[in-house]
Design brief:
Blueprint (H helix, E strand, L loop, with lengths): L1 H41 L1 H9 L4 H22 L9 H16 L8 H13 L1 H33 L4 H27 L1 H11 L4 H31 L1 H28 L6 H17 L9 H12 L4 H28 L11
Helix pairs in contact: 2-13, 3-4, 3-6, 3-10, 3-13, 4-5, 4-13, 5-6, 6-7, 6-9, 6-10, 6-11, 7-8, 8-9, 10-11, 11-12, 12-13
């Protein structure tokens, strides 16, 4: 009976992986179809003409705003480490490498986040590096909600949006806020201890319960040490947490500045407030479609949708979306190259 249950479990596991792979392929094709549809209806020649009008500014915009944003996010991660702060340059390189892997993976936490922890563990210790990744991702998520909330409040004062759009974005923002702050609260009281406690309370089949118990016996002590790093950070390092949060907000604001520069050099300047609103709505849309690998299609369609909401040209929205796509591809390529040649130092003694 137990053997049959295990065979059934492995069968469904294999089927699940197969379906996930097929779904990923379907989503990629769907994303490229959306881009094709937009280009066909708006016109590729219109887009290329706008991009050519930027001249040498195109090269500048592919590197400068993104470099500032990467520095800010790396700095926020550096100050999320509990204990000895690692060298910034190592953090910077590991962050770019991890973000690049996350970019090509459906969902931001599947591969990229563990990779960041692995790259840093030789410089901060396994538990400290893993905790820092969780903390930095938390501060980045909270800072995104803060930036989006500020931008949307500003938009309500300066601009008119359909009530349906305002309500939809408000609901998404509220749900994100609740989820993030629950996650933060669990970290403060013991994230993995809570998960273990809930797992022990679940009524599982015998074979599943044995697997859970085996996992807890094997990894439980490591997870509880990780809990200690998280709780100690939030208890003893409120200054670092606040600094990481503020720097992350500035990182998101840099994305708005990038939008501002794109439109300025395209000869269609907007106010910095409008650029903030465009970036904030883009972040909400990208978060809603986090399952799309590389945001293929959703980023471009999202920009067109946002620009049309504010009475701007659809081709301008698509051009901005494609410019950001090219910039992301350049930085992803750099990140994957860094990952290939990344050199780790001798592992430091594990912090207790």
């Amino acid at each position: 009976m137990v053997a049959a249950a295990r065979r059934c479990m492995f069968f469904f596991k294999d089927v699940g992986f197969y379906l996930m792979k097929k779904i990923k392929i379907i989503l990629i094709f769907l994303g490229f179809f959306i881009i094709y549809f937009l280009l066909k209806n708006i016109g590729l020649s219109v887009i290329t003409k706008q991009i050519k009008s930027m001249g040498w500014a195109f090269i500048f915009l592919m590197f400068f705003p993104a470099l500032v944003q990467e520095i800010l996010f790396a700095l926020a991660w550096q100050y999320s480490v509990n204990g000895r702060i690692p060298d910034f340059f190592k953090i910077f390189l590991a962050n770019i490498a991890g973000e690049s892997v996350s970019y090509i993976t459906p969902g931001a936490f599947i591969v990229g986040e563990p990779l960041r922890a692995i790259l840093l563990k030789h410089h901060a210790g396994a538990h400290s590096s893993t905790a820092s990744v969780i903390i930095s991702r938390t501060t980045r998520a909270i800072s995104m909600v803060v930036f989006v909330a500020i931008s949307l409040l500003v938009s309500l004062y300066f601009f008119q949006m359909p009530m349906l759009i305002k309500t939809a974005f408000g609901i998404v923002l509220a749900l994100l806020s609740v989820g993030i702050f629950i996650f933060l609260y669990l970290q403060k009281i013991g994230l993995f201890a809570s998960i273990i406690k809930w797992a022990n309370r679940l009524k599982l089949p015998g074979w599943a319960e044995r697997k859970v118990n085996h996992f807890i016996q094997k990894k439980g002590s490591h997870l509880l040490k990780l809990d200690n790093h998280l709780m100690n950070f939030y208890k003893n390092e409120p200054g670092r947490f606040c600094f990481s949060l503020i720097v992350s907000v500035l990182g998101w604001a840099t994305g708005a500045f990038e939008i501002y520069l794109f439109l300025k050099f395209l000869g269609m300047p907007v106010s910095i407030v409008m650029a903030m609103v465009i970036e904030a709505l883009s972040l909400v849309i990208n978060t809603c479609f986090l399952f799309m690998p590389g945001k293929i299609g959703t980023q471009e369609a999202g920009k067109v949708f946002i620009f049309k909401i504010f009475g701007m040209l659809a081709e301008t929205g698509l051009t901005v979306g494609l410019l950001r796509r090219v910039r992301e591809i350049i930085w992803v390529s750099l990140g994957l190259g860094i990952f290939t040649f990344y050199k780790t130092a001798k592992p430091i003694e594990q912090q207790r």
